[in-house]
Design a protein that fits this description.
Chain A: This is Methylene-tetrahydrofolate reductase C-terminal-like domain-containing protein. The complex is a heterodimer. Chain A is mostly helical. Chain A has one domain (13-179). Chain A has helices at residues 13-23, 27-37, 40-58, 106-116, 139-144; strands at 126-127, 152-153. A two-stranded antiparallel sheet of chain A has the order 1-2. Chain B has a single domain (6-318), classed as TIM Barrel. Chain B has an 8-stranded parallel beta barrel, surrounded by 7 helices. In chain B, β2, α3 and β3 (75-80) form a beta-alpha-beta unit. Chain B is globular and about 60 Å long. Residues 306-319 of chain B have low confidence and may be disordered. Classes of the chains: A mainly alpha, B alpha/beta. Chain A binds chain B through residues 1, 3, 80-93, 95, 98-99, 105, 108, 111-112, 123-124, 126-130, 132, 155, 160-165, 167, 169, and chain B through 81-82, 86, 108-111, 113-114, 121-122, 124-130, 133-134, 136-137, 140-141, 143, 145, 147, 161-163, 165-168, 170-171, 174-175, 177-178, 181-183, 190, 213, 237-238, 240.
């Protein structure tokens, strides 16, 4: 496994937010996701298409639980530490990544892009751990079926310590769960 | 301070807290920890035991923490996400509680590419925020991340780290606020060489009410040589030495740099003690743990300790 390299998105943040609006969950997409997921060959083609598009635009690693809408569309999985909750303390004063000083920290890119769209507060969300069973699966299919609803949670004065666990855990509804040995 | 006092008691009181750092040895010699503990005992409220610092293999922080506690110093066990997945992290957190470790410091950790095994697999199954959140889940909800219950819950104090000087500056206070939401009760910072920038960061924390819920302990350490300054700025991720300080250290004759660096460290501590919201200092003496008592004494932050331990008594304690 090669070390991830911070990736600079190839489309501006504004366009990415606009694309998200086009792809936002509705009844049709929900139906489409369920339809695709029931057909393994179609699911493979669909996922390959998603991979091709998102890899090219965002350096997507296919974690299957897309964080892009909350990170100014800069992919945190291209951080060498795959941090989901913001930049580490090793960012140099010039903004470069501690692992590769020739590259800009992906979280700095995320911060600038989110701020430019007045979405900086997205970075305050507490991002829950990645479900590692979802790698190589379609995040669009997961998103349209509502499985991403619990990947992040906001804290507030009224709820200063949101629970880490969700009930039922989003993963328990995911199809990969069929293979879980321990019940 | 005996372990019976320790960090929790110190933070519960309103005095200025002092913590230090103990780097475990690269071998199986338990006496190294005992010797370092002897130098610190009575001068610090607790000492961190680093977790393979800089991604270089050392004795485990869990073993080091137990040895440190046996030697009479309250241990803060550091635990990073670099080398363990969520199963191993929870296991070590539970194990630490069972062995009497009363404070944990949870962090993401340096990337293996920077250490002595750059060929190692970087794990980072969780990030630092999620690890803090995990610890809080174990302690407050009494469950694993899987939901399985813990009959006996751990009771350690949960700490974390933050670097107030790394960009983006505007995000750094909010990032700590997020870690506090996840469960951090104290934070130790990266080296503070730029006190004004640090004070601005603490002011933002105060404004957001973070300092009421999380004790801020500022990282400090003496720069002993120009070589060390070059190392700190060039090799250690996230350390920032302001130009003004660089000029000051370059402005003295070579044989006086060490003394000047020490003086800067003492002044820094005194200035930090005057910033509302700063609860203490974390002294990182770069392997020279024997310097810690001297710095503490000169800074005058532990008047309760100053007269009782003479260098001779320290020498005795070391044997």
């Amino acid at each position: 496994m090669a070390v991830q390299k911070p990736f600079r998105p190839r489309i501006p943040a504004g366009l990415a937010y606009a694309l998200h609006a086009v792809l936002a969950t509705n009844r049709f997409y929900r139906w489409l996701a369920a339809y695709v997921e029931r057909r393994p060959r179609l699911y493979r083609w669909f996922t390959a298409g998603e991979r091709a598009a998102k890899e090219r635009l965002f350096g997507c690693r296919m974690c299957g639980q897309c964080a892009l809408p909350a990170t100014g569309y800069a992919c945190p999985m291209t951080c060498p530490k795959q941090l989901r909750n913001g930049p580490c303390g090793g960012v140099s004063a010039d903004g470069s990544c501690e692992v590769d000083r020739t590259l800009r920290c992906v979280w700095l890119t995320a911060w600038d892009r989110a701020e430019s769209a007045a979405r900086g507060s997205d970075l305050d969300l507490l991002q829950r751990p990645v479900d590692n069973r979802q790698w190589s699966r379609s995040s669009w299919v997961n998103y349209w079926q509502g499985r991403d609803e619990t990947i992040a949670v906001a804290y507030s004065g009224a709820d200063p310590h949101p629970p880490m666990r969700t009930a039922p855990a989003p993963a328990d509804r995911a199809p990969a769960d069929r293979h879980r040995a321990e019940r | 301070m005996s372990p019976d006092g320790g960090l929790r008691a110190a933070l519960a009181s309103d005095r200025f807290v002092v913590t230090a750092e103990v780097g475990p040895p690269r071998d199986a010699d338990p006496d190294v920890i005992a010797r370092k503990a002897a130098a610190l005992r009575g001068w610090v409220d607790a000492a961190n035991v680093t977790d393979n610092q800089g991604a270089n293999v050392r004795m485990s922080s869990l073993a080091g923490s137990v040895l440190l506690r046996q030697a009479g110093v309250d241990a803060v066990m550091q635990l990073t996400c670099r080398d363990r997945n969520r199963i191993a992290l929870q296991s070590d957190l539970i194990g630490a509680a069972a062995l009497g470790v009363r404070n944990v410091l949870l962090l993401t950790g340096d990337h293996p590419a920077l250490g002595d095994h750059p060929d190692a697999k970087p794990v980072f199954d969780l990030d630092g925020v999620q690890l803090v959140w995990t610890a809080r889940t174990l302690r407050e909800e009494g469950t694993l991340l899987s939901g399985k219950p813990l009959a006996t819950r751990p009771s350690w104090l949960i700490g974390t780290v933050e670097n107030p000087f790394a960009p983006p500056a505007a995000l750094r206070a909010r990032r700590l606020a997020k870690k506090v939401a996840a469960g951090a009760e104290f934070v130790q910072t990266q080296y503070v060489f730029d006190v004004d920038a640090f004070a601005r960061w603490v002011a933002r924390l105060r404004d957001e009410g973070v300092t009421d819920r999380c004790a801020v302990i500022a990282g400090v350490g003496p720069i002993r040589s120009l070589r060390m300054m070059a190392f700190l700025t060039g090799q250690v991720p996230g350390v920032h030495v302001p130009a003004e300080l660089e000029r000051r250290l370059r402005g003295v004759p070579a044989h006086l740099v060490e003394e000047e660096g020490l003086a800067v460290c003492v002044e820094t501590i005194q200035r930090l003690a005057g910033i509302p919201g700063v609860r203490g200092v974390h002294l990182m003496a770069f392997g020279r743990d024997d310097e810690v008592p001297d710095i503490v004494r000169r800074a005058g932050i532990r008047p309760d300790r100053a007269p009782t331990l003479t260098p001779a008594a320290l020498q005795e304690g070391r044997q």
